[in-house]
Amino acid sequence: MHRKKEIVTLDGPSGVGKSTISRKIAASLGYTYLDTGAMYRAVGLHLQQMGVDAGDCDAVTANLNTLTIRLLPARDEFSDAGVLLNGVDVSDQIRTPEMSMLASRVSAIPVVRAKLTEMQRAIGSQGRLVAEGRDLGTVVFPDAAHKFFLDADIQERARRRVRQLRLHGSQADEEKTLEMIRQRDRYDSERNVAPLRKAEDAFLIDTTGITIEEVCARILERVLSSRPGQHL
Ligand code: DC
Questions:
Q1: Nearest to residue 103, comparing CAs of 161, 42, 172, 182?
Q2: Which ligand 1 atom sits nearest the alpha carbon of residue 36?
Q3: Stretch 110-138: mean pLDDT, rounded?
Q4: What residue ranges define each of the domains in the chain, with the CATH number in brackets?
């Protein structure tokens, strides 16, 4: 019988709490945590630094071939995953609202997706992974054992994002943040390659009005109950 890979995927739009929840789930299970959004952010930053136009396919491809991305564990439970881009720590640089929009734009480029999907599959080849992003359950790990799709009311997502940005010391305006989230939802779900979509076999959780702890408990319950001989 074909056994599915011991991989947990969490997909969903920005601001649903994917990162915090995925980090907690990975820590509870003792699995590696993979923040694929951080990889798209690093590519966006790299192309910007090199002055490459996202529409110039040859230049994008050439720059991708010389790019190294290494993910670093989060510094603490409030921090996102860190990133070394060509050996330089860009963990803070990639977390600005500008980089969110740029990451969304470069993530629609087919060669960028192909390259990052390949890297993500290599990281997941041994299983025991919690991977979060937009296309983990649909494209990157279609045979993952546990798939979740998180969603939430857009106003609440904007409020959460503002709180997160302020926690990191940035000024954040709720109206502007809401508009950016709306734009990013559109880019991420309307692009041709690997758009944001719930995998048919993913379990949907609406996180509006429920705590992070409650979402984690629901996810862990499903993951652990599907393991033979495991009880909570
Ligand atoms: O999860 P995030 O906000 O860090 O992601 C930044 C952008 O990267 C997001 O707007 C779309 C893109 N992305 C993607 O297209 N596919 C993924 N698996 C992860 C992120």
A1: 42
A2: 19
A3: 96
A4: 5-225 (3.40.50.300)
